[in-house]
Design a protein that fits this description.
This protein is mainly α. About 50% of the residues lie in helices and about 5% in strands. Helix 2 packs antiparallel against helix 9 and helix 9 packs antiparallel against helix 14. The longest helix has 27 residues. The structure holds carboxymethyl coenzyme *A (CMC).
């Protein structure tokens, strides 16, 4: 029997029935599409805390249990047993590739790693001290001015080419943003290298000497990319979908996603975590900092803690903490003062009634900054790396949206609180 719920309008005594839809796993949803036409009411849900805006078969999160699945596969398995290209294929196409498909996909992506040469000149228009995310927003948006042959969103082939281009070119753009900021020459991609290795080569290599990729660091980089590849309908992904719902081209939509990711409540949190740890400065000052976080008047948050969906340990944070130990071990960093503060901060917060009662646990950003800093990335690059990896999720969700026959232009309504209609008063008659 199909499920439904009944809404009773107590003012009129009228009952309205709404269908309940079930996904493959997870909570059911009430289908309110006919709510306004049937009842004259809209829903009010700022921040979309109770609203499912689309159907999706890509990522599943159980926030209470701390479970994250991509196309049914646990993030822990993917991080441990897979590589980023394989995960990208899975997220984009729905299944893990076989050997032949993986080889072909690697090749297809590497064919698109170079940027149109004219784009290089774009960079000189930015100030040297421009934030890499500012550069990424501009350059990725500008790709639509260069790749006219992949802008027709009605053509599945063009959509796939645009998707490959974005996944392939993002590391090149991110590395160029870094090189520009430090005044070093851009490094061309080397297509004989795997994705993460190539990114490290473009970021830390220089043309005057050979660059040897450290396999432990390349593996860590690849794993960090996997952990950030997709995360359901978060703010930036929803932005990409909303932008795409108007028929905007994929490069413009991903630029919109990058802009949203930049905020400190979202992808900017890893940068904010490191700033916070530096500000705390010493383990002895943690209690004083925790006191400020708990005082609402201070407006201070424990960055890297808390999540809209996870009310348990973020499974990505666990993998990240392990990767952190591996990278610091490889680099011979025995006593990292920021890591010491982070570990102690986590220990205290996990026992503190404030954090326990609000179910605030470390999220993916809590340890990622420490790893990236140890690898040599400046803090300003952290969110750019997140954007690079999340491009896979954004573009997969964008494709899924375009192919969804139920897709409509995104157009929320509002609870209007301004003045009702009033007569216009000419300027010379106004008080
Ligand atoms: N430190 C202190 N208190 C917090 C924190 C925190 N990090 N996060 C939430 N709270 C409190 C908040 O003050 C509120 O308390 P009360 O109920 O007394 O008003 C309660 O917990 C619920 O918070 P909320 O802001 O209503 O929750 P939300 O779901 O809107 O926010 C969040 C989620 C991630 C924006 C928030 O937890 C936060 O700002 N965290 C710090 C920033 C961060 O680490 N962001 C990265 C998220 S994971 C990666 C990504 O998505 O990009």
């Amino acid at each position: 029997m199909s499920k439904s719920v009944t809404l009773t309008d107590k003012a009129t005594g009228k009952d309205y029935n709404f269908p309940v839809l079930s996904g493959s796993v997870g909570p059911d949803v009430i289908d309110v599409r006919k709510l306004y036409t049937d009842t004259g009411f809209f829903t009010y849900d700022p921040g979309y805390t109770s609203t499912g805006a689309c159907k999706s078969a890509i990522t599943y999160i159980d926030g209470d249990q701390g479970i994250l699945l991509h196309r049914g596969y646990a993030i822990e398995d993917l991080a441990e047993k897979s590589d980023f290209m394989e995960v990208a294929y899975l997220i984009l196409k729905g299944e893990l590739p076989n050997g032949e498909q993986k080889k072909q996909f690697d090749r297809d992506i590497t064919l698109h790693t170079m940027l149109h040469e004219q784009i290089n000149r774009f960079f000189s228009g930015f100030r040297r001290d421009a934030h890499p995310m500012a550069v990424m927003c501009g350059v990725v948006g500008a790709l639509s001015a260069f790749y006219h042959d992949s802008l027709d969103i009605a053509d599945p082939h063009q959509r796939m080419i645009a998707s490959y281009r974005l996944i392939a070119k993002m590391p090149t753009i991110a590395a160029m943003a870094y090189k520009y900021s430090i005044g070093q020459p851009f490094m061309y991609p080397q297509n004989n290298l795997p994705y993460a290795d190539n990114f490290l080569q473009m970021t830390f290599g220089v043309p005057c000497e050979p660059y040897k990729v450290n396999p432990v660091l390349a593996k860590a980089m690849d794993r960090i990319f996997i952990l950030h590849a997709d995360h359901e309908q978060n703010a930036s992904t929803s932005t990409v979908r909303l932008s795409g719902s108007s028929g905007a081209n994929p490069f413009a939509c991903i630029a919109a996603g990058i802009a949203t990711l930049w905020g400190p409540a979202h992808g900017g949190a890893n940068e904010a975590v490191l700033k916070m740890l530096a500000e705390i400065g010493h383990k002895d000052r943690i209690p004083e900092f925790i006191k400020r976080v708990k005082d609402k008047n201070e407006g201070v948050r424990l960055m890297g803690f808390g999540h809209r969906v996870y009310k348990n340990y973020d499974p990505r944070a666990k993998v990240m903490a392990k990767t952190c130990q591996e990278v610091l071990g490889e680099l011979g960093i025995k006593n990292d003062p920021l890591l010491d503060i982070a570990v102690e901060l986590e220990r205290i917060a996990l026992q503190d009634e404030y954090f326990v009662s609000k179910k605030l646990y470390p999220n993916v950003d809590f340890y990622s900054g420490i790893i990236l800093k140890a690898m040599g990335f400046p803090t300003a690059m952290f969110t750019a790396l997140f954007a690079l990896a999340r491009t896979v999720g954004w573009i997969a969700q964008w494709n899924e949206m375009i192919e969804d026959p139920e897709q409509k232009i995104g157009r929320p309504r509002q609870l209007y609180t301004g003045p009702a209609h009033r007569p216009f008063v000419p300027l010379d008659k106004r008080a």
